[in-house]
Every structure is written in structure tokens, then in C-alpha cells.
Amino acid sequence: MDQAATTGVRPLVLVLCTGNAARSVMAGVMLEAEGAAVRVITAGTHVVENQPMSRRTRDALTALGLDASGHRSRQLHDADLDDADLVIAMAAEHVRFVRRRHPRASDRTATLSWLARHLPGGPVPLAARVGRLDLTDVDPSIQGDVDDPAGGDEATYTACATQLTGLVAELAARLA
Length: 176
Fold this sequence. Notes:
Layout: H1 3-7, E1 12-17, H2 23-33, E2 39-44, H3 55-63, H4 78-83, E3 86-89, H5 92-101, E4 109-111, H6 112-118, H7 126-131, H8 154-175
Parallel strand pairs: 1-2, 1-3, 3-4
């Protein structure tokens, strides 16, 4: 039996992108808003620490009725990966980063696009469901990316938020 089942602590999900200023922020807030029975943290692979999300990220979230105004960017740390039951990457490059720099978390890391299609739902604890996926053997290049809106205009951020809304809703249903 896993720790969540015995202690009542909800499983920890880490949402990962590059700068922790757009995609992971939006996906993390959306996942929390979906009411999934998980704890959510976000981080980035290459972060300038303690920065607010971009203005366009904030505007895209506000248009959806969501708020992450307290967000500050944070670099991915070993402890985040040690504690996470699932690492949700925004793109193949993030899966590869984890495999290269933190191989012990490879079996718990996949892209949001892939997880939204393949994570089994049901009453089995999340860690066990993730373990059955053999994620270390899934080629990151076929998992599907959420394109980084950085440097794009308002429409680019809105399109990213729209894509994330659908993927997060699919994944949240599987996390329930």
C-alpha cells in the first residue's frame, strides 16, 4: 500500500516546463482548478528564480477565470523529483532533461499530452498506476509537446492556454 493510502496525504504531481513562467504555471493552476485529488507544484529546467509569471500568462489565465498571482518561478530541485509521484512535462525536451540529469525519476516522467491519453484511471493509487506505464521505455519524441508561447503575442498565449485546458481536463479525469 502506498503512503498516500495510509497517511491520507494526496499524491504529489510536479508540472515541469523550461522557465516556469508560462506552460507549467497555466497547467498547474488548471489542474488545481479541476479539483484533482493531488497536490501540485510547478518548476522549470532553466529558471531565473523568484520571478512572476509573464504578463501574457497572467492575461491568458484571467481570461479563463483563473488566478496565479502569487506564483514565483522556481528551479527544479532533486527533492521535488524525490517527492513527486508523477512528473508532468510540457515537452519531450523536459522528459529528456529529467532522464539525463535525474534518471531516478525517469519512470515517473512523461509529457502532459501522453499522460492525458495513457494514464489509467481508477482506484489504484497513482504511484502504482504510473509505475505500470514503464515510462522509461516510452520515446519522448512520440509523446507530444505543448509549444512554448514565450516570445509570442497574446494570441499565442491564448492558444497555449486553450490547448492546456483540454489536456489538463483529460488528465484530471484520469487522476480522479
